[in-house]
Amino acid sequence: MALSSFTSICAALSLLQGPGTRLTYRIRVIEPASIAPRILASGAVSGPLDSDMRLTLRTDTTEIEALFQVTPVGDTVTLAGDFFTRRQVGRSRRGLPLWEEDSYRRLVRLAWSDTARIYPFGLGQRTTRGPSKALWVELTLEREFAGGEARPAESFDLSDSTRDVRLEAVVRPRRARVILNLVRGDTVSAPRPMDLVPEEPPRVVQLVLKGRATTLVVSLTRPDQARSIRDRALALDADVVCLRVAPPDGSEAIGLICGRLNNVARQLPLPSGDTLAATFAWPGWR
Amino acid sequence: MADSTHEQWLLQIDAELDGELSLVERAALAKHLATCAHCAGARASQLEVRVALARSAGNPHAFVVPRPTIRAGTLALWVMIALGIGGIAGWAAHQHWGGPGGGSTLEESRGTIVVH
């Protein structure tokens, strides 16, 4: 009975450690040429199964940003691409560039070993001698079993430095390291590091400054949905978290501190006259 | 040089209206007036001044020399022709170069994912 309980606890703990599957987006940016297609860039983005990939292609007259997400369905996977494009369509009477913006979503289902060919500039008009001259991106999805490796990773090789191509891993933090300090004048309390999980029940924290203890109730939340269509489509706020700070008596919250996990301290004035400084960072290695 | 010749012709016009030119000089002036719109206009102006003076002096038989005028119908016709040519040229340019956004449709310019 005891052994069975231990086994089930181990199984639960292993599930909590995150999925054992690692996802890799492997891409090649290919430009058609007269003799053989030329590879402009190649790279890979890997991470937990919920990792996304953001791809950016820029020319003088076009900017294409796309966020790719996968949803495994049995032996197949659904690849979704949220595109946000800007094209220069001319100039105004005062000589300033005029741009048209477009956002749309593409969805395909493919097997894990399949290659998806993405035409970011569209298939265009096929010429009499063959397909269009627009470049394309070859995307292959791979999955492998990872031994607890949960960190996202990127590798990118740009063969033609005149091209503006970028590749980024987009990962929403499952937990965040929050360091709290209490500031009064030029005095700062000892840092209080905490590992918080978004949408977890609130935690009570006590900070002591000059012998006076301040008790606060803090909880980590996700930010509200981005207002801009571009920010929403490209998940630009994926690594933003918000810290809700409330007094211990359960009354109305004192305030909300939102920020990226980038080690920048953000301040919130407290009713007691002190200032709470919160620094968000990615959690340490496990 | 051309101005001095022109001034001489204006003097000849003045003399002609005073009846002081010979038949040969009047023939030469008439030949010049047929080719010089400026002198013809100056002669018409002088005639109008003289008619006005004659009327004010009580001569009821004085009459105005009619000037060439552009008729409204002709003007309207030319305006219509100019507008028509402009419209056709604009349509042809739009067909050839298109408007903002390029010649392809929106869906053609959008990204596509094809599975291999």
Biggest beta-sheet profile of chain A: 5 strands, antiparallel
**What is the element string of chain A, with H for helices and E for strands?**
HEEEEEEEEEEEEEEEHEEEE
* Helix amount of chain A: under 10%
The fraction of residues in strands of chain B falls at under 5%
How much of the sequence of chain A is in beta strands?
over 45%
State the distance separating the first and last CA atoms of chain B. Answer: 86 Å
Shape of chain B: rod-shaped
The Cα radius of gyration of chain A reads 24 Å
Distance between the termini of chain A: 30 Å
Tell me the number of strands of chain A.
Answer: 19
Low-confidence stretches of chain A: 6-18, 127-131
Helix-strand category of chain B: mainly alpha
Structure description:
The complex is a heterodimer of chains A (286) and B (116). Chain A is mainly beta and 286 residues long. Chain A contains two helices and 19 strands. In chain A, the strands form four sheets. Chain A has a five-stranded antiparallel β-sheet, with no helix packed on it. Chain A has a five-stranded antiparallel β-sheet with strand order 6-5-4-3-10. The longest helix of chain A is centred in the first third of the chain and has 15 residues, at 2-16. Chain A is elongated and about 75 Å long. In chain A, 20% of the residues are buried. Chain B has 116 residues and is mainly alpha-helical. Helices cover 68% and strands 3% of the residues of chain B. Chain B contains five helices and one strand. Chain B has helices at 2-17, 23-35, 37-56, 72-97, 106-109, and one strand spanning 112-115. The longest helix of chain B is centred in the last third of the chain and has 26 residues, at 72-97. Chain B is rod-shaped and about 105 Å long. The chains are: A mainly beta (286), B mainly alpha (116). The interface between A and B is medium-sized, with 29 and 15 residues. Strand 7 of chain A pairs antiparallel with strand 1 of chain B.
